[in-house]
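Before we proceed, please read the two lines closing this message. Report back on whether the structure tokens fit the sequence:
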Amino acid sequence: MTYFVLFLGVCLVLGALAVASNPSPYYGVLGLVVGSVVGCGWLVSLGASFIALVLFLVYLGGMLVVFVYSVSLAADPY
């Protein structure tokens, strides 16, 4: 179980680096989804399943709206 939590922690850091280091919003969204799922999995493994569900719904839903808006602005030629 300790190795699994350590693996989730490493994946969470890699997901955060993927969000921060990609100039393209498409890959940033992918890193955000990976980081959010791994972070929620980490919280579930620690026994906080309700907090993980709330984090997944609120954080991921709100941030995906911002990313969709920025992608639509970047794709607009005018």
